[in-house]
Amino acid sequence: VLRIDLRQTGKPISTNLIGVFFEDINYAADGGLYAELVQNRSFEYRPTARPDWTALTAWETVRRRGADGTVVVADAFPVHPNNPHYVVLETRAPGDGFGLRNRGFDGISVQAGNVYDFSLFGRQLFTGNRWGNSGVLEGPAEFEVRLEAPDGSVLASATVAVTGREWRKFHCTLTPARTEERAQLVLLSRTRGGVALDEISLFPRNTFKGRPNGLRADLAQTIADLKPRFVRFPGGCLVHGYGLNNLYRWPLAVGPVEQRRSQPNLWGYHQSMGLGYFEYFQFCEDIGAEPVPVVPAGVCCQNADHQGGTGQRGLPMEEMPAYVQEVLDLIEWANGPPDSRWGSVRAAAGHPEPFRLKYLAVGNEEHITPVFKERFRMIYEAVRRKHPEITVIGTVGPFHSGPDYEEGWRFADELRLPMVDEHYYVAPAWFWENLERYDRYDRARSKVYLGEYAAHDVGRRNTLRSALAEAAYLTALERNADVVLMASYAPLLGREGNTQWRPNLIYFTNTRVLRTVNYYVQQLFSLHAGDVYLRAECEDPRASAGEGIRPDDRLFLGTWDTQAEFDDLRVEAGDRVVWAEDFSKDRGPWEALSGDWQVVNGVLQQRSAATPARCLFNVPPGTTRFTLSLRARKLGG
Ligand code: AHR
Known about the structure:
Layout: E1 2-4, E2 11-12, E3 18-21, E4 59-63, E5 68-74, E6 86-93, E7 98-102, E8 108-110, E9 116-127, E10 141-148, E11 154-162, E12 168-174, E13 180-189, E14 193-204, H1 217-224, E15 230-233, H2 237-240, E16 263-265, E17 269-271, H3 277-287, E18 290-295, H4 320-335, H5 343-348, E19 359-362, H6 370-386, E20 391-395, H7 403-415, E21 419-426, H8 428-433, E22 447-455, H9 464-479, E23 484-489, E24 493-495, E25 506-508, E26 513-515, H10 517-527, E27 532-533, E28 536-538, H11 541-544, E29 554-560, E30 564-573, E31 576-581, E32 590-592, E33 597-600, E34 603-606, E35 613-618, E36 627-634
Parallel strand pairs: 3-15, 3-23, 15-18, 18-19, 19-20, 20-21, 21-22, 22-23, 24-25
Antiparallel strand pairs: 1-28, 2-27, 4-7, 5-6, 6-14, 7-13, 8-13, 9-12, 9-14, 10-11, 10-13, 16-17, 25-26, 29-35, 30-31, 30-34, 30-36, 32-35, 33-34
Helix pairs in contact: 4-6, 9-10
The structure holds alpha-L-arabinofuranose (AHR).
The site of alpha-L-arabinofuranose has 12 residues, from loops.
């Protein structure tokens, strides 16, 4: 029986509760949401990401009958210093075709009748008379651009003519006659001579909302269908990278794509930055979500320089003033007038109106060390001074409890942070056992953004059990929406065959999008979000029928995250002690479900705090009602 008193005013539920967290993990950006079909389009892959990767990864030289020539990677006169590598393609004899082939991401999937926009940057180096005398340009360097099926048959073909000695962009369109899942892009030189080529690109015309340099329509729509109130981006650990040189620096992810600095990412592949800050903000606007960018707090991933050697865990203090300014510049880029320094960069990209940024997250899952605190404080205070209208979101470390968590909260109290970001990836049972977590939160402290969470079931699969646990937990978040203002499942996307992390909310291949059961939970809570939480009372019919608790029922006693020991556990009915346990035996009616337990001198001790301990109690025969009392001590501080 469920009783709800409809006269109560209730507690408002945050209007921004359900959002998404996008990180470039599992090929979520290049080869995923970003609609670019060419892999390694700017020849910037390098072995830092994978030992076998080179500037020519995903490319092959094509040399058909009678053809002769060479392809080499160069860096002498690049399109832009941020994009240093390009290829020099010298055709000595065009024959039946000399040039390059790109395999895309597991092939290039094209659909009959759709238009594909091809472009490249090129400049002529010398013409066919190179071995003659003058070096004077005799005419354009012509290329046939093709989409070919795996059997070599031509699906679409067009021509581009590269002219001039300066870098310029050249275009053509391709409309395949047949649908093909694993096509390849082929570029065949038709003239003798040498050309420099870079930023070789192929986009479907039908990107999400038809945006140039846009997003894959089906994937973007799947995210839009969640009606997320906000999007957190671009990470995750990706934000602080694997070393100070790998931090995600937002200014390098705006402006013309050929001028952005691509870099290896911490998840073991490459990020072109084609999906950069402009595209993230535009996507948020297109789907009616608040942008929640995350900037590095000036420290490496969890304060550890994985590149090794430098010993630096944070940006040197003398670099911090410039870095703080970089963070302030982001706010100007997003919200400043079009004639401001950074607002003009946004305007030049086609968005003179401000993006109306409200939130800024600083740091991700940091260890709350002095190195972190010093840098975070500088950034936070500067933003608060200059932009009190921006809600800064801090971090309380990688876990739901423990030293970083506690120190993170202490630090948040000290700075009076408006909001902190909590993260936890835990077993489904944890969610059930912690439904009251936020009931106990002090309302006077910082608000919570649950920026990353997911129920990790056995084998890290997306299961109904994990989805139900998340759903139950979301009801608890709604009940506590005066504390938890925002929440986002993590991670969002996983490319089948290229995942570094499971479970994810959405899986995809080049042609398919799979919405998981966990996706539908998020969608349910998002599309049917409540305005207010009404207190309800629930009566168990079994209890009202006088049955109470039955022998052999298994009652959950509690979870302990910190190492503890217990020396008294008793069950009383009225004045009568029906059962008491002094833990002199290894097993009794109690049962330790997890954790590592030992009985020492009549005391039940949890060996380590590494695994949260759960304890069940088997109800002894004859018990109908009981009071449970428990005496415990925390071990290890
Ligand atoms: O969501 C995957 C990763 O989990 C994130 O990058 C990181 O913040 C967390 O550890």
